[in-house]
């Protein structure tokens, strides 16, 4: 093993997280990454960190790289709202669209169980929430808006129905919609924007702020999803930037909803939470939520924690919409960040970026592994690595030398039809 050129803390038990909690300090926003969407230890260690942030530092909600409607169903269950379900496994059935394993897994079930238990002894204003940041749920969000407004505001409901009708010819197929509207002025942008304006202008939600917020958020998702799918067919960084800007807008809205003293935890892939300016994403004009949050709230108020592994197994698919598989993750590519950490020791460990700044070899970009929902180990040596200046990309890094695949609930899923629209699958 090589001599470590920087200080690190071995990670074997939850008490070892003291080192990380001290670094987080009084930050308002903590982002917890992952190097894949299918590794068990990423979920379990993020759960351990989340528990401590909630109990010891007063964090009030978790937001994840998931769709708003499905995550809000979990939020209702966790907070014990009426008719929100009685069994965790049943509630997790809301994750029916591929890739189901990201949130319909036993590791998430353990987090949900803990959050529900914590909330059981808290009053409504103190209950910990669970929300989705992503932008894929165009049709599901439109349907929820129509259902809500049918009971609240006939005029606004009509605007929502017109938006939904505009999308009907495309048969719930984003690829069909994007291709049909990319280069001709026949899209549904006007309809979804009008729907959002009607909701925010005319609808009153007395006594049920979160229920009203849910309707507004679904309308916002529809607006940004429509832009996202149209932008994707044109190529370039615009669709990625629409997606992460939407994530940031959702985070801002949730912080405002929960009040000036609120604190947020974000679970998302390293490619979203690690500052894009410290990677080659910046050369392509791409931004992400980690960068945007640092720019708005300042580095002291935003702490970014990356996660990675040297080898093990993972749940992923060979192509977009294909069945999930348990795959081997081979040893990290020589010269990469993960390989360097393995050479130092095969211990799991926590590294703080402030301890890396004086190491000359870390001032140049290193390859840093990124596994998405689509993965093939055969191509490991040719892709899946993002050139990164680690000390600038994160505030801390959790390294796991050998990790195991997440444990899915094996739900049947709605397949996705648009593989060529997703050059980035993180």
TrEMBL record:
<dbReference type="InterPro" id="IPR014622">
    <property type="entry name" value="UCP036794_erythomycin"/>
</dbReference>
<dbReference type="Pfam" id="PF05139">
    <property type="entry name" value="Erythro_esteras"/>
</dbReference>
<dbReference type="InterPro" id="IPR052036">
    <property type="entry name" value="Hydrolase/PRTase-associated"/>
</dbReference>
<dbReference type="InterPro" id="IPR007815">
    <property type="entry name" value="Emycin_Estase"/>
</dbReference>
<protein>
    <submittedName>
        <fullName>Erythromycin esterase family protein</fullName>
    </submittedName>
</protein>
<dbReference type="GO" id="GO:0046677">
    <property type="term" value="P:response to antibiotic"/>
</dbReference>
